[in-house]
Amino acid sequence: MLEKWSGLFIGRRSRWVTLLVWIALAVLLTVLLPAVGEKEKNNAPNLEATSPSVLADQLIKEQFPSSSGVPALVVWHREGGLTTEDYTVIQELARSLTEQPLPAQAETIPLHQLPPPALAQMASEDKTTFVQPVAFVEATATEILKDNLDAIQERTRAIVKTDPFAASVEDASALSARITGPVGISVDATGLFQGADVSLLIATVLLVLVLLLLIYRSPILAIIPLIGVGFAYLVTSPVLGWMAGEGWITVDGQAISIMTVLLFGAGTDYCLFFISHFRQELRRETDKMAALRRAFKDASGAIAMSGFTVVLSLFALLAAKYGAYHRFAVPFSLSIFIMGLASLTLIPALLAIIGRASFFPFIPRTEEMERARAQAKNKVYKPSKQQRGPGHAIGRLVVAKPWTVVICCIVLLGSLAGFAPQIKFTYDLLSSFPKDMPSSEGFAMISEAYSPGDLAPVTVVVQTDGKETGVEELLAAQPLVDHVSAAVPSVSDPQLLSYSVSLNINPYSQQAMDAIPELRAQLEQQLEGAGVTGAAAKVWIGGQTAAQHDAEQLTIRDMTVVIPLVIVLIMILLVAYLRSVTAMLYLIGTVVLSYGSALGLGWIILHYGMGVEAIQGAIPLYAFAFLVALGEDYNIFMISSIWNKRKSMPLHQAIREGVAETGGVITSAGLILAATFAVLATLPIQVLVQFGLITAIGVLMDTFIVRPFLVPAITALLGKAAFWPGKAELIEETTAGGSNS
User: Which of 599, 600, 665 shows the shortest CA–CA distance to 626?
Assistant: First the structure.
């Protein structure tokens, strides 16, 4: 049936129809729909609307409107101390912003109306740093905010006649300035991603092209997978752009970057698996179309199964509640789905059109064709020697000494996985950005000159019901609190009080995050002691520290939901495809072990080698969804070969030949996939560097340890039991030294 199905794409006319359909789709969608990059939104919320910190922030905006607006913090600094001239510059900028407000600018502090001594009192204790807030209306577009920050810099340069935003913060003779705060960070983050998807796309294409040329030494063959991936990208991008434009999904720069890498890495893999089958059949079959039909029959099932595994695994991210996870589900799964269609329709059509010339100059031919070719050239035919690569040796090893192989693999992978529990996590997005980014430098200037908690104060709101609660004293007595502002009553309810709490530690640290639930519990107990009824519903804690605590809790929740869901989905697919519970269990177990070892080795490299104190908290779930799905890909391709061969030969021989047959193409595919994920490490965003490194390590683990050694060795050990509960009639081993199965 599969051979007949292939006729829809590789027939004399249908191959051209298939190519034209893909061209038409790519052109029409590109012309009629916006590209996904045009609809990216990098400031989408990650927390749920019902998260405690979100509810608190909403209450603060409604009941304490003086604190509304999103601030850009202009940080002024002179290493030797700010001068009178410096304060004059600050006042002139304040005057300009008051008299000529920027678009979407909210109320600003009239610093130009203050006498210089009063202004100096607002500086840091060492008088080296001054923070000038400029607030903007909530939900202002990032493009407008960027233009506003550029305008602030232009006005400043016009006042100073120099460029303090380009001056070094360590230059004692110069006034330096940086813009940070939520607005500065948001604009800088968007700037990092602008153009990153284009540069990443170019770098990925060039890398894949170079690797294909080095591995296969065929210019045409190197281009064919890129054509397939390119068309898949041209179709995927406008479809996602349209969905984002309709408000059905949200995409950000980070998702687009990873999607690009995923498409080219996994997409090239699927194309190579099909091409390798075609090349094998061309060495057996004179008719290229017959060879292509057989290749389609042998490869399409495994490719479809592998693609479906990745699609379902990534689609499972929809069950996540943390926005950064949830937003990834549709772009990633849709891109792989379209790539799978391209690898089973467009790639066969291209191979049908080009034929054996696809492999030029190393064209595969049957022995009869080679003999006839030699005679036509009046040359003596010399049969080519059968080359036996490392795959044959590995196949013999895993069959001859399966226990040794299994024990060595488990010890190695288990030892590396043992480092995974030592990993420390951070939920501070700013720590993921380059330290020389202007908003990062401004953030560092504030942290050095002021109390650490002033960077991001914790806002505590309590409903006192008119009772004396002693909340301010309780907050001031906390060991992690530096100082507490006086209570501010709500505009509509004088019994609703707000306190600004500055911590004496980094408000983005894990210690600060862990203090939030303890602080809430103490506040509820304090209100209850004061006679306030329903105290649990009358305490709100807002601010970045509380938001990061909520992000941590959502991440923990998502890991407990998504990881089991992904495993269950893959288990169901494996049982349906292989008809074996036993094989399903050890295939799942091996990739999970590989995932743990990738986390462990990644932590060793990042922490001990690169000095990273903590990795982003989102990394483990990202890496799991990708590594388990993509790792299972390689297991499926390899185990499918063994399953097919054991029908016509003894199991141990099937294992030897299956490992040898798939070794070259899976190794090539693994190297390409790992290299494409490693490209993410070239971006100036630590979360992508960490994700790219750990994922690349995991792919290499699957490629060089799990697929060639561990899985075949376990299959050899289990023998007939590997097919349970299926009824496998295995052929008896007849080779010398072989054991009966």
Answer: 599
* Residue 735: per-residue pLDDT: 45
Question: What three-state secondary structure class fits 51?
Answer: coil
State how far the Cα of 272 lies from the Cα of 303, in Å rounded to an integer.
Answer: 10
Mean pLDDT value of segment 664-672: 87
Rounded to the nearest 10°, the torsion over CA 218, 219, 220, 224 is 100
Q: What DSSP line would sit under 420-464, residue for residue?
A: GGG--EE--GGGGS-TTSHHHHHHHHHHHHS-GGGGSPEEEEEE-
Supply the pLDDT for residue 736. 40
Q: 542: helix, coil or strand?
A: strand
| Residue 521 pLDDT class (50, 70, 90 cuts) | very high
Rounded Cα–Cα distance for residues 476 and 133 (Å): 26
Measured CA to CA in angstroms, residue 377 lies from 91, 367, 381, 382 at distances of: 90, 16, 10, 13
Alpha carbons 262 and 204: distance in angstroms, whole number? 10
Q: Write down the pLDDT at residue 3.
A: 59
Contacts of 378 (CB under 8 A, 6+ apart): none
Distance separating alpha carbons of residues 276 and 280, to the nearest angstrom? 6
505 sits in which H/E element: none
For the cut 90, the answer to whether the pLDDT of residue 370 exceeds it is no
456 in Cβ contact with 507 (< 8 Å): yes
Q: Which residues pair with 462 in a beta bridge?
A: 497, 539
pLDDT digits (tens, 9 = 90+) for 600-618: 999 999 999 998 889 988 8
Give a three-class secondary structure readout of 178-203: EEEHHHHHHHHHHHHHCCHHHHHHHH
Rg of the chain on CA atoms, in Å: 31
Please, is 361 exposed, middle or buried when counting C-beta atoms within 10 Å of its C-beta (0-12, 13-18, 19+)?
Answer: exposed
Rounded to the nearest integer, the mean pLDDT of the chain is 88
- What phi, psi does 553 have (nearest 5°)? -65, -40
Q: What tokens appear for 580 in the block?
A: 């074996």
The values of phi and psi at residue 469, to 5°, are -105, -25
Alpha helices in 355-401 (DSSP H): 367-376, 390-400
Report the range out of 248-257, 351-360, 424-433, 679-688 with the highest average pLDDT: 351-360
Contacts of 700 (CB under 8 A, 6+ apart): 670, 671, 674
Q: What angle do the packed helices 544-578 and 288-315 form, to 10 degrees? A: 140
Contact 482, 458 (CB under 8 A): no
14, two tokens: 């249908």
**Is the distance from CB of 25 to CB of 235 less than 8 angstroms?**
yes
The residue with tokens 């990881």 is 563
Pairing of strands 458-463, 539-542: antiparallel
149 close to 188: Cβ distance less than 8 angstroms: no
Residues 395 and 391: their CA atoms lie apart, in Å, by: 6
Helix (H/G/I), strand (E/B), else coil: 541: strand
Query: CA dihedral in degrees (305, 308, 314, 317; nearest 10)?
Result: -120
Q: Identify whether the C-beta of residue 220 lies closer than 8 Å to the C-beta of residue 357.
A: yes
Residue percentage of the chain with pLDDT more than 70: 96
pLDDT tens per residue, range 265-312: 888 888 888 888 888 888 888 888 888 988 888 888 888 888 889 999
Q: Which residue has the tokens 């269609």?
A: 341
- Which tens digits make up the pLDDT trace of 64-90? 876 557 889 999 999 889 999 999 999
Average pLDDT of the segment spanning 620-647: 86
Based on the number of CB atoms within 10 Å of its own CB, is 630 exposed (0-12), middle (13-18) or buried (19 or more)?
buried
What's phi and psi for 74, nearest 5 deg?
-85, 115
